[in-house]
């Protein structure tokens, strides 16, 4: 069974994942208003992934015989200056998430909960990818600068992303 400290930390992580989803939905709506449908769609897919992460961690708490706790989900910012600001915020947000994922993995190690440590390794790898994709997008946006034509081409490219559930139902 999952210990008390890990149950609390994982419950807080469920909340953080749902906040991430909320944040990315707010960003997706802002991008839609900027006329960047591809960016909006990319961020919507990202929000769906975050919800899948939250649900996956919630199910893990139950699977380990513990009871998750729930708290209010923080309100995301109401507006964003432009698309560059959005992705700067995506990157700094993901860096913060990486710290909390690492802290839970460290706690699992201290508690000698090898199963939970193993569970967290998926998230450790995922955070490397999430930070890398935010950095790649930011690099492209900085290269594009004020070139609206290239921005629209890039917008189209980002719009090709589709949601794939990382945790298909177990048979
Ligand atoms: Fe859940 O990976 Fe981003 O935050």
Compact description:
With 171 residues, the protein is mainly alpha-helical. It is built from 5 helices and no strands.
Describe the structure.
This protein is an all-alpha fold and 171 residues long. Helix 3 (83-110) runs antiparallel to helix 4. The mean pLDDT is 97. Helices cover 74% and strands 0% of the residues. The longest helix has 31 residues, at 114-144. Bound molecules: hydroxy diiron-OXO moiety (OFO). Hydroxy diiron-OXO moiety binds at residues 17, 20, 50, 53, 94, 97, 126, 130.
Task: Summarize the topology.
Blueprint: H1 4-33, H2 37-63, H3 83-110, H4 114-144, H5 148-158
Helix pairs in contact: 1-2, 1-3, 2-5, 3-4
The structure holds hydroxy diiron-OXO moiety (OFO).
Residues 17, 20, 50, 53, 94, 97, 126, 130 line the site of hydroxy diiron-OXO moiety (OFO).
Mean pLDDT across the residues is: 97
* Rg from alpha-carbon coordinates: 17 Å
Structural class: mainly alpha
Helix-strand topology string: HHHHH
- Give the overall silhouette: elongated
Cα(first) to Cα(last) distance is 23 Å
Major sheet summary line:
none
Bound molecules: hydroxy diiron-OXO moiety
Strand % is under 5%
Helicity level: over 70%
Low-confidence stretches: none
Number of strands: 0
Number of helices: 5
Features:
single chain; 171 residues; mainly alpha; 5 helices; binds hydroxy diiron-OXO moiety
């Amino acid at each position: 069974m999952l210990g008390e400290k890990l149950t609390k930390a994982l419950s807080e992580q469920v909340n953080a994942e749902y906040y991430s989803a909320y944040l990315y939905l707010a960003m997706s709506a802002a991008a839609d208003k900027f006329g960047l449908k591809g960016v909006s769609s990319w961020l919507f897919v990202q929000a769906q992934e975050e919800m899948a992460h939250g649900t996956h961690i919630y199910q893990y708490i139950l699977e380990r015989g513990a009871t998750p706790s729930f708290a209010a989900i923080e309100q995301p910012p109401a507006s964003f200056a432009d698309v560059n600001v959005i992705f700067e915020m995506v990157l700094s947000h993901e860096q913060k998430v990486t710290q909390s994922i690492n802290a839970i993995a460290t706690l699992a190690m201290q508690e000698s909960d090898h199963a939970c440590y193993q569970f967290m390794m998926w998230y450790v790898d995922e955070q490397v990818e999430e930070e890398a994709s935010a950095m790649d997008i930011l690099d492209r946006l900085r290269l594009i600068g004020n070139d609206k034509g290239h921005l629209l081409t890039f917008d189209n490219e980002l719009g090709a992303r589709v949601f794939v559930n990382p945790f298909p139902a177990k048979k």
